[in-house]
Amino acid sequence: MNRTIEGIYRSHSRRVLATLIRLLGDFDRADEALHDAFAAAAQQWTEKTIPANPYAWLVSAGRFRAIDHIRRRTRFDAARPDITESLYPEGEAMEVAENEEIEDDMLRLIFTCCHPLIPAEARMAMALREVCGLTTEEIAHAFLIPAPTVAQRIVRAKNRIRAAHIPYEVPCKTELPERLAQVLRVIYLVFSEGYSASSGSAIVRADLAAEAIRLGRLLLQLLPDSEVEGLLALMLLQDSRRLARADASGDLVLLADQDRALWDRTQIREGLALSAKAMAAESVGSYALQAAIAAEHARAVNGDDTDWRKLVALYDLLLMASPSPVIELNRAVAVSICDGPAAALSIVDGLLQEERMARYHLTHAAKADFLRQLGRMDEARQSYQAALSLCQQAPEQAFLRKRLAELESKTRQ
Fold first, then answer.
1. Average pLDDT, stretch 46-61?
2. How many angstroms separate the CA atoms of 271 and 301, rounded?
3. Which pTM was predicted?
4. Which of 7, 97, 206, 286 has its CA 20 to 30 A from that of 15?
């Protein structure tokens, strides 16, 4: 039963929290209510009494317990309806049903986290904490900054929401375009954490990836835009490879070695159509370009059939539209295939001069691969070891250990 509840927590907790924030109007109160609801579930549920709609049960249980806490803390008489009326608006059913309003709650939460009154550096950290449920340490690792800095940013953001009475809502359509870039970034961060978990024992978190795709579809309904189309295309095309990214033992499988028969052709067809539409728009943004890169991989029958020259050109355009050292690192991989590992190694050596990239395990892993291809085994070993020391995901750690073992074997031969 505990395993069942843990599974429901992984798949439902962030949406339950999003709805509780809307109902209770406070992040900390909602977080407390969320944990109270799951504690109640652990006490009350049995294999025979698990509700058909655990999400609705948890929302109702959390809201009831929040009211109880408020009553005890403020010692107000039940005859005073002021607080209970704020928690139970007139005409709202006590039981929460699966409806369109609840489906919007995650999007409301993202827009709240991205409100212009919240400092820019705090928006992403808060979104990853509240929308993805990442720990402070995981967020710090993702942004390559100290954990206490992340914690301070989140606390300040919540205080700003409370002090400024920032509404928990999707803004009107006239305000959507100016908030779009931040919201798109958050949705893609949610997807990225689902597609390649920053830590833990699994490569993917399918629940997060699916939620990000759902939010992308919902946002496209609210605001038809080429960048929203590009982001949705990108997520669909990347997610189409999910089943091929790990073998039967859970070990990481690189793109070149994946069984493409396992790729989801339905997602690929939809992604390619959206990508073509986004690239045909009057203004082409970074998500459309990233989707075009993913589309080139999706079209290729195998790795050898991939048009790597076109990929390098697309990366060049992407770097003009959205300069980023991570994008430059990805470009280096394409360059290595077109122009050889020495050319790619020069790019990576330049990136390692940046403190942020020097703390990023994939920078060292890429350098190790290029050094290995050049036959510089001792240097490759050192770079793999550096990557391993920075990596926090178990399957990637196993992959790096395997590469190190292969180097040791070649050295002995």
1. 88
2. 16
3. 0.80
4. 286
